[in-house]
Specification:
The protein has about 750 residues and is α/β, with parallel strands linked by helices. The chain contains 27 helices and 24 strands. Helix 22 (about 645-665) crosses helix 23 (about 675-695). The structure holds NADPH dihydro-nicotinamide-adenine-dinucleotide phosphate (NDP), 2-oxoglutaric acid and magnesium ion.
């Protein structure tokens, strides 16, 4: 793709996006993202657009990629032809309108190393984007840094997710997984794998929470009162509405460091791998700091000697060992410090590896090990992580904060006791997640602070009330999160309707002993009682709910986990990865609170490993099943909201095509020579056209698609041959964050025969 917005006048795909040429909002918005899902879109989107166009449905594109967002943030630095509009801001408005119908693919939530790399690539391509100021020295740099900070981490999802989350495996997908089980590692009862978490002085144990009265609502201030009474304003204005649940908590830096030091010793003594699992992208302020502590404590003897030198050179451990090694190498004392690092590493426990062939450790990049995907993959593998010797080994999974660690601890304990889950017979755990309007920790970015000096951190509410305050020390990580009343009520109602639809077990994963959860329970119980459905639901701590849910699905039964935002994220990778092998196949619906719909594709990420494989051997293993499911839902939603019968027929045909891809085993596989993403899109198009050609509800659609189906059938061998000619050889995409449009197109649309057949529509 080129750097221009896909809806900008000269953008490459624009010419084919004819529905975008008129000014009306397209019926459906598809998102341009990054990495593997974006590569897949270059092949799949033209299929979708041409089929939809033939049915009078327009599909437009908005660019929410990392590169696109960076370009949109610095218009004054760029030539007019390089600029592009702020599509994310536009989409952020659209999702608040009842007309919204968005298909949202996973985008990069960038860590600092990813952001820096993307900027470097753009600069090399002639975009005069400023450098990311690691340590802003003046107001101008602070302003630049603020723009980058708005792009960093989970900057897209919190803006678009104006509704709560309904994630589950479509019935066809679950049935397929049961009859075609993925491999599961065996769990040994004597596995030494453990989950370790802080015993106190963390976010969980320090949490305080309050539901605001009308008097307390309004503009509040967050401040730090020093021992001498001096007041440092941390945030001068946060606005709250009545009924909002506001939490405040902190993690003690001293307690964290002591915990990490203990874990290093414990891991070494146990002879297992050391691994830390965080969400440095979604918790973009707190978790990179925690990650930095881990890097620092791991390398403590080196920091004791050279810490001041590193600090003077502006080198922070928060960006990870990878960046630190690069920066240290450039120092005059570089060789000496690198030798000191090697000496420390030799004494430390072996590290869990991201890529043992390339020497990339758990501590290299804060966004390489993302807890929602990393721990489930380890559990799926029978509790094994990869060590530096390239061999699988038992692992200490360190999750500093204890709020959510119990779900993994209980899973590990359960599988040690009972052995791995059997995907052939397991039921499913669906999720209803509280997520709308930046609920809970999701929205805590602007209200998280690394405390500059000892004192009392507190929130002063509009009427002067101070109900949330903590004695803190320098370096402590203090954070406040809030959850509005309307999203909470909407979430409980969504849970009621999902439970009614499924008729299965439904559990609110809430801990009455946790301050925040206790406030939520005060909302949940009366709503359930008023609806007369209290007996259909249970409320359990996350640990107890984990055990009960695992026992339920082991019996082949189903459960609905009704959870807060972080657990939504964790559970919608954990259960799918165990049940289906991956979370990419999930149906992920966001019922927008103002009436629109957003259909996310899968529950996972942007699979950087897959891009690497494509570049090395021109095989893309990305599975677009999530996109197929989202497309079907989006079309059916369009049919309902706009009373569009053709959209309904198109949507039902998508479901049949998806079923066809599954039944005929046409999903991508891992190796060169096997079906890949592009070939699976051909089969999807074939089955979609066949479904439209064999329905009897709309004769014009039948007339349009019968010849298309025939042409696709007749040219199967030619198309597959064209798609596979380049397999096994390197593929040049002309970039990573900003790939070259023509090069990417020639890789991803490698069958001229297929392109020609679609061009008829
Ligand atoms: N909603 C969003 O926008 C999300 C974005 N992200 C972003 O994605 C990036 C990578 O995150 P990470 O935690 O590594 O998670 P990913 O889900 O991208 O990757 C984990 C692994 O899951 C498997 N996988 C994921 N999707 C697919 C798919 N469609 N088809 C086949 N396999 C798949 C792959 O494993 P294998 O090849 O071994 O089968 C992959 O290596 C980060 O930048 C993160 O911020 C992450 C989560 C959600
Ligand atoms: O927003 C993000 O950074 C990641 C979101 C995610 O992982 C999810 O919603 O499952
Ligand atoms: Mg996730």
């Amino acid at each position: 793709m080129d750097g221009k917005g896909l809806n900008s006048p000269d953008s490459h795909l624009k010419d084919r996006n004819s529905p975008m040429t008129n000014n009306a909002t397209p019926d459906i918005i598809y998102t341009k993202v990054d990495e593997a899902p974006q590569l897949a879109s270059v092949s799949l989107l033209p299929v979708i657009q041409s089929f939809a166009k033939a049915a009078g449905v327009s599909v437009g594109v908005k660019d929410i990629s990392l590169a696109g967002r960076i370009i949109a943030a610095f218009p004054e630095n760029l030539r007019p032809d390089q600029r592009q509009p702020d599509d994310l801001a536009e989409l952020g408005q659209l999702v608040k309108s009842p007309n919204a119908n968005v298909i949202k693919l996973p985008n990069i939530s960038a860590s600092v190393p990813q952001l820096v790399a993307a900027v470097k690539e753009l600069q090399a391509k002639g975009y005069a984007i400023p450098d990311y100021p690691q340590d802003p020295a003046n107001d101008a740099e602070k302003a630049i840094r603020a723009r980058f900070d708005a792009i960093k981490g989970s900057a897209v999802n919190p803006i678009l997710r104006e509704g709560n989350s309904d994630r589950r495996a479509a019935v066809a997908v679950k049935n397929y997984a049961m009859s075609n089980p993925h491999s599961m590692g065996a769990w040994a009862p004597d596995s030494k794998t453990i989950v370790s978490t802080m015993a106190g002085n963390d976010f969980f144990s320090n949490e305080k929470s309050v539901t605001l009265t009308a008097e307390q609502a309004g503009d509040a201030r967050i401040e730090l009162v020093g021992a001498d009474g001096s007041i440092t304003v941390l945030k001068d204005k946060v606005s709250y509405t009545a009924g909002t649940v506001v939490d405040a908590t902190f993690m003690s830096a001293k307690a964290l460091d002591a915990f990490l030091a203990e874990q290093i010793t414990l891991t070494k003594d146990a002879g297992i791998l050391f691994s830390i699992h965080l969400k440095a992208t979604m918790m973009k302020v707190s978790d990179p700091i925690i990650f930095g502590h881990a890097v620092k404590v791991f390398l403590q003897p080196m920091f004791d000697t050279y810490g001041a030198t590193l600090a003077a050179a502006g080198i922070s451990p928060n960006s990870g060992l990878g960046a630190l090694l690069d920066q240290v190498a450039a120092l005059p004392q570089g060789a000496e410090i690198l030798a000191a690092i090697d000496a420390v590493m030799a004494e430390r426990p072996a590290l869990y590896m991201v890529n043992s062939d390339k020497g990339i450790t758990n501590l290299h990049v804060p966004s390489d090990v993302i807890i929602d995907a990393s721990i489930p993959a380890l559990i799926r593998a029978g509790g094994k992580g990869w060590g530096p010797d390239g061999k699988a080994a038992d692992t200490n999974c360190i999750i500093p904060d204890s709020s959510y660690a119990p779900i993994y601890d209980e899973s590990v304990a359960y599988f040690k006791e009972t052995g791995a889950l059997d995907p052939r017979t397991a039921g499913t755990v669906q999720n209803v997640g509280l997520m709308a309007q930046k609920a809970e920790e999701y929205g805590s970015h602007p209200t998280t602070f690394e405390i500059p000096h000892a004192g009392t951190a507190r929130i002063v509410f509009a009427n002067g009330d101070i109900v949330l305050e903590h004695a803190v020390e320098a370096g402590d990580i203090w954070r406040s999160a809030s959850t509005k009343q309307a999203p909470i009520e909407d979430w409980v109602k969504l849970a009621i309707s999902r439970q009614k639809a499924e008729g299965c077990q439904a559990i609110f994963w809430l801990d009455a002993a946790r301050a925040h959860d206790a406030e939520l329970i005060k909302y949940v119980e009366p709503i359930l009682a008023a609806a007369g459905v209290a007996d259909k639901f249970q409320i359990m701590t996350p640990r107890a709910a984990t055990r009960v849910s695992l026992e339920t699905i082991r019996k082949g039964k189903n459960s609905i986990a009704i959870s807060g935002n972080v657990l939504r994220d964790y559970l919608t990778d954990l259960f799918p990865i165990l049940e289906l092998g991956t979370s990419a196949k999930m149906l992920s619906i966001v019922k927008l609170m103002n009436g629109g719909g957003m259909f996310e594709t899968g529950a996972g990420g942007s699979a950087p490993k897959h891009v690497q494989q494509l570049a090395e051997e021109n095989h893309l293993r990305w599975d677009s099943l999530g996109e197929f499911c989202a497309l079907g839902e989006s079309l059916k939603f369009l049919a309902e909201t706009k009373d569009n019968d053709k959209a309904r027929i198109l949507g039902n045909a998508v479901d049949r095509a998806t079923q066809g891809v599954l039944d005929n085993n046409k999903s991508p596989q891992a190796k060169v020579g096997q079906t890949d993403n592009r070939a699976s899109h051909y089969f999807f198009a074939l089955y979609w056209a066949q479904a439209l050609a064999t329905q009897n509800e709309d004769s014009s659609l039948l007339a349009t698609f019968a010849p298309i189906a025939r042409a696709l059938e007749e040219n199967e061998a030619a198309i597959l041959a064209e798609l596979s000619t380049a397999e096994g050889k390197p593929a040049d995409l002309g970039g990573y964050y900003l790939t070259d449009a023509d090069k990417t197109e020639s890789v991803m649309r490698a069958s001229p025969t297929l392109v020609k057949i679609l061009s008829v529509l």
